[in-house]
Specification:
single chain; mainly alpha; 2 domains; 4-stranded mixed beta sheet; about 5% strand
């Protein structure tokens, strides 16, 4: 009877350890890292798309403002030229010519800026068109990564369900007085059950004295289980 209890406890510990390992594996799946990378790539792509569209809008607004500014300057130039034709005094003519030259300089600056904005806008629109062509591939890759992760998680969850079924059966077959101790030691140490191999606990890997081995054997006479005096694990003798 003691040997049967000990064997069931070892099996329960093996299943619990396997479940723990599967849960850690589920959290660290390479598919999860791949999904994170694909999500980040799409998010970066969306940020770039937004930035390019924003820049195109800014340039459009700037060119519209430049058109209005240019129209105003041309109107000023026309007005000044008309005035120039009516003046006789050289000093007034000189002043008007200076104003006309100033307006022409401003007009040249506005036109140059507008041309630069137009060139940048055209280049940005071409870049945006090329950028948009990448969207389908990025979203497809993201979808595939999501599917792969879902499948990998589903496989692990299915294995955990089967482990839980076996664990429930084992726990139901064990004496109720053993389980609280098993759960308490497992909660404290992770591994609750270890074997006594000759004179060493294979849980803490520490040697027991000859007297401690004899005491462990006496404790295990009825149930097959003793307490490791070194680590407190349930020791299968």
């Amino acid at each position: 009877m003691g040997a049967m209890i000990a064997e069931r406890l070892l099996t329960l510990q093996r299943l619990d350890t396997e479940a723990d390992q599967l849960k850690v594996r589920r959290d660290r799946l390479p598919e999860r890292d791949e999904l994170t990378a694909r999500s980040a790539a799409l998010a970066d792509w969306e940020r770039q798309r937004t930035a390019m569209r924003t820049r195109i809008d800014e340039l459009a607004n700037a060119m519209e403002a430049a058109e209005e500014r240019s129209a105003g300057l041309r109107a000023d130039k026309t007005r000044l030229n008309a005035q120039l034709k009516t003046v006789i005094a050289p000093r007034e003519a000189e002043a008007l010519l200076h104003e006309i030259a100033t307006v022409e300089g401003q007009l040249e600056e506005v036109d140059d800026r507008e041309l630069a904005d137009l060139t940048e806008s055209s280049a940005t629109e071409d870049a945006l068109a090329a950028h948009l062509r990448e969207e389908d591939a990025l979203r497809t890759a993201l979808g595939q990564a999501d599917d792969s992760l879902e499948m990998a998680v589903a496989d692990i969850d299915a294995a955990l369900v089967e482990i839980d079924r076996q664990r429930d059966e084992l726990r139901a077959s064990l004496d109720g007085s053993i389980l609280p101790k098993y759960d308490r030691v497992r909660g404290a140490l992770g591994v609750a059950v270890a074997k006594l191999v000759v004179h060493r606990c294979d849980g803490c890997h520490l040697d027991l004295s000859a007297a401690e081995v004899d005491i462990a054997k006496e404790e295990a006479a009825a149930t097959g289980i003793a307490d490791c005096p070194q680590c407190g694990r349930m020791l299968v003798v």
